[in-house]
Every structure is written in C-alpha cells, then in structure tokens.
Specification:
This protein has 13 helices and 19 strands. With 449 residues, the chain is of the alpha/beta class. The strands form 5 sheets. The chain has a 6-stranded parallel sheet with strand order 2-1-3-4-5-6, with helices on both faces. Strand 18 and strand 19 form a beta hairpin. It is globular and about 60 Å long. The protein starts with a helix and ends with a strand. It binds S-adenosylmethionine and iron/sulfur cluster. Its EC number is 2.8.4.3. It is an enzyme of class 2 (transferase).
C-alpha cells in the first residue's frame, strides 16, 4: 500500500482484545492479517498508526469500558491525524452500537462485526484509499475462512476455534445475535492445525466453540465432538494436552466423558456451565436441562474420570429470580464441589428475551446473594486445593509467576495453577511438582526429579 511505502518505515498497530477466548483467537488472526500487511505492533495507542478495539458484548460493563477507551482515542487521533481507528468484535455487530459510533464517535474509521473478520484487509484498504469511514456489519451468511494468518502468543498455550456461532438462544445471552448460527470447521482442518501447533512446540491446546457439544451437526458427516477428540488424540502424536470450552449440559453425553477418560491427550478438565441450580430459572433461561440432569452428568463424569477438575459459569440475579432460587444455585455449588467458578451478576442485554422480563430484585439484594455464592465457592476451592498438599503431580511449566519465592507458573493436567520453585530451564516443558502449600486460588510447590 502506497500509504506507508512512502513513509519509508513499517506502520505500527495497537490491538486491544476484550472478552472471551474466542475473541482472543479472533484477535490473533487480526494480528496475523496486520502482520501480513506489513504492520509491527505496539501496546501504546499514542504511538500507533492503527488502533483496533476487538470488543465483547456479553455484559454491559465490557461495553462501557470500550466506550471509555474510544473516547480516550480522540486525543491520540488529534495528535496524529492519520491514525486509523477500528472497532470490531461482538459489540460492533449490534446495529445500535454501529449507529451510536456513526453519530457520536466520528473519529472511528472502520467498524466491522465477527462475520466480516476475514474481510478485514479489504475493508482497511477501503479506509486508506477512500479516506472515508467504512461500516460492515451486515448479517452475512456464515463464512468459514480457513488459512488466515495467525500471530500466536509465544509459549506453550494455543487456542483453536473448531466452530463459530451459537443456536441456543439462552434468554439472557447476546451471543447468538452477534455471532450468528453454528458453523463447524472441517475435522481435517482442525486436526491439521493441531498437528502444526504440536510440531511448533505448543503443548496446551484449547479447542473453542460456544457449545462444542454440537460440533459437526451442520457438517452432515455423522462425526460428533467426541469423535473429533478421539481423532485428534489418535492422529496427532506428541506430548501435549487438549482442553475444550464451552460444553452445554443439554448436549453433553456419557460418550463424551468416556472418550475423555480413554484419550491420554485429553486433559481431565471439564468446564460445564450450569448457570442456575433452580429448575424454574433454568427454564426461564431456556437452558433445556434440569438441576437433576446436570447432577447426573457431573456424577457420571466424576465416576469415569477420577481427579477430574470441574469448573462452571453461574449467573446470579436473572430477572424474577427470588432469594430462595438464588440459594438453590448456592446449594448446587456445594453439592457438586467445583474446583472454580466464573460468577456473574445478570446484565440485561438489549434485544434478548430476558431483557423484557420483569426484574424486581434490587442490585443490592443481588449483590448479597452473589457474595454468599462467592463465600461458598471460596471455601470449597480452598478445601479442594488443600487436598493436593503432600502429593506430587505432573505440571506443564508455562512461564514466570512474578513471585520470587515461587518463580515459575505452571498448570496441572486439570488446569489448576501451581506456583513453582524450580529452574527457569523448565519453562515450556512438563515437570513433576511436589505440592507444599495452597490457598483459595492456587497451589504452591517445588519441582522434583
Ligand atoms: N457459550 C458458553 C456457554 O454456554 O457456556 C458461554 C458464553 S458466554 C460468553 C460466557 C458466560 O457469560 C455465560 O456462560 C454466562 O454465565 C455469562 N453471561 C452471558 N450472558 C450474560 C448476561 N446477560 N449477564 C450475565 N452473565 C452473562
Ligand atoms: Fe450464550 Fe447460551 Fe449460546 Fe452460551 S449456549 S453462547 S450462553 S446462547
């Protein structure tokens, strides 16, 4: 592009990604495309020729942060009139957001949603050549673009999207509106990507999808997610672990858990979001399983995979939820004994079914229920972690911890964080760790022969 060839130096981009791992994976492909166009990267918006915010729309808080950041970019753009500002990701796919940006954030040059990710170079070319604003948020039929370049984080961890979109329309959730219907990648492409990552030295690979348990339904090949796991495990050789997220309980099956138990490369970790422990609330959420069905699933999974690390997502304060119903969620947490939870207070998302439901409980009431949930989970996490003390476990050392007493950061097979005393030479490899201490959030130990 003539624009920067004339300047005699490579242009710089600052990419800021918000939200879930799917967004992180998208951000890595955006960086891949930028790198292929000749950009280098900076963390400082003020020094960048191009600033891109890759946004999340799942909760209101995330959107507010993005508007704050967009506001601050008026200053960088004032200082550098040629700076190009891009907004993409789930927030950008919402017509109301695009309208607001069009009218009130006139310094933003390019807006595109997840559907148009693969068209980013073309859209950017339009910005540079037309020198006008470009908006691309049309709800296009789902395209899966294979072979986009990726800039991955150095280290041992990598993310692989196996499918895009969601068909479930949980009543509180914006994702199906902004990411479209489910589209699965061909198994061959996924297996090849994992093979390439293992050959490059990645050892902790997470397969991503909004509901990996419906993988393959749209392909019509008869292959399901358990079959995909089996295939990767059997066909990709090497010392590595496969994780996945998220699993929807309505589609999780004993076949999946049996496959996990049988495949040595599949980590003993299951993230199975239950959202609520009350059947009336689950129905209002359109989750399509009951508390009893959920308990049956996790009990089966624990039986076939001793030592399984179980995590989940929970929402407190869904519209119309009563204190007793919220306490059903706390009782489910105690009954299952999760290793960790991702906990959220309900956030209304315009256009979703739940946003139109009466929501009489106050924010202060919801906060009290939420705090009770956190107290219950913190006590369980501390207890689960204390049970590791004295044992020796295999860990993958993934970097430095920033704490001189335990300089290394590592993860167990089940994904538990272990701060480790040992040589920095271990970074990037599997090691044995003797666990000497623990707290609510982590284990502490020393590397042993
Ligand atoms: N597809 C995944 C699943 O079903 O488990 C989750 C995707 S969503 C990005 C991650 C989590 O955000 C959900 O599991 C839910 O707990 C939470 N979440 C989604 N919408 C929310 C809302 N409106 N308010 C609060 N939390 C929400
Ligand atoms: Fe949202 Fe439900 Fe789809 Fe997860 S499964 S992305 S919570 S609609």
């Amino acid at each position: 592009m003539a624009y920067w060839q004339d300047r005699g130096k490579a242009p710089t981009a600052c990419v800021d990604t918000f939200g879930c791992q799917q967004n992180v994976a998208d951000g890595q492909r955006i960086m891949g495309m930028l790198q292929a166009m000749g950009f280098t990267f900076t963390d400082e918006p003020a020094r960048a020729d191009l600033v891109l915010l890759n946004t999340c729309a799942v909760r209101e808080h995330a959107e507010k942060r993005v508007y704050g950041n967009l506001g601050a970019l008026t200053h960088t753009k004032k200082a550098n009139g040629a700076q190009v500002i891009c907004l993409c990701g789930c927030m950008a796919q919402q017509p109301s957001v695009a309208k607001k940006v069009r009218e009130s954030y006139r310094h933003v040059d390019l807006v595109f949603g997840p559907h148009a990710l693969w068209r980013f170079p073309e859209l950017l070319y339009q910005v540079y050549t037309r020198r006008g604003r470009v908006f691309s948020i049309d709800d296009e039929p789902g395209t899966i673009a294979e072979g986009l370049p990726v800039v991955r984080e150095a280290g041992v961890k990598a993310w692989v999207s196996i499918m895009y979109g969601c068909n479930n329309f949980c009543s509180y959730c914006i994702v199906p509106y902004v990411r479209g219907r489910e589209r699965s990648r061909e198994a061959e492409c996924i297996v090849e990507e994992v093979r390439g990552l293992v050959a490059e030295g990645y050892k902790d690979i997470t397969l991503l999808g909004q509901n990996v348990n419906s993988y393959g339904r749209d392909l019509g090949t008869g292959m399901d997610f358990a079959d995909l796991l089996s295939r990767i495990d059997g066909e990709v050789e090497g010392d590595y672990l496969i994780r996945f997220m998220s699993s929807h309980p309505k589609d999780a099956t004993p076949k999946l858990f049996d496959t996990m138990a049988r495949c040595p490369h599949v980590a003993r970790q299951l993230h199975l979001p239950f959202q609520s422990g009350n059947n009336r609330v689950l129905e209002a959420m359109n989750r399509r399983y009951t508390r009893e069905k959920y308990l049956e699933l996790v009990n089966y999974a624990k039986d076939v995979m001793p030592g399984l690390v179980l995590t989940s997502d929970v929402i407190i304060g869904f519209p119309g939820e009563t204190e007793a119903e919220a306490m059903d969620t706390v009782s489910l947490v105690k009954e299952v004994g999760f290793d960790a939870l991702f906990t959220f207070i309900y956030s209304p998302r315009p256009g979703t079914a739940a946003a139109a439901m009466p929501d009489p409980a106050t924010r202060a009431e919801k906060q009290v229920w939420f705090d009770r949930l956190l107290d219950a989970q913190n006590e369980i996490s501390a207890r689960q972690h204390a049970a590791y003390v004295g044992s020796t476990v295999r860990v993958l050392v993934d970097g430095e911890s920033g704490d001189e007493r335990w300089p290394l950061s590592s993860r167990t097979n089940g994904g538990r964080l272990v701060h480790l005393l040992g040589s920095r030479d271990l970074i990037g490899s599997f090691a044995q760790a003797r666990i000497t201490d623990s707290n609510t959030w982590a284990l502490f130990g020393e590397a042993v022969e």
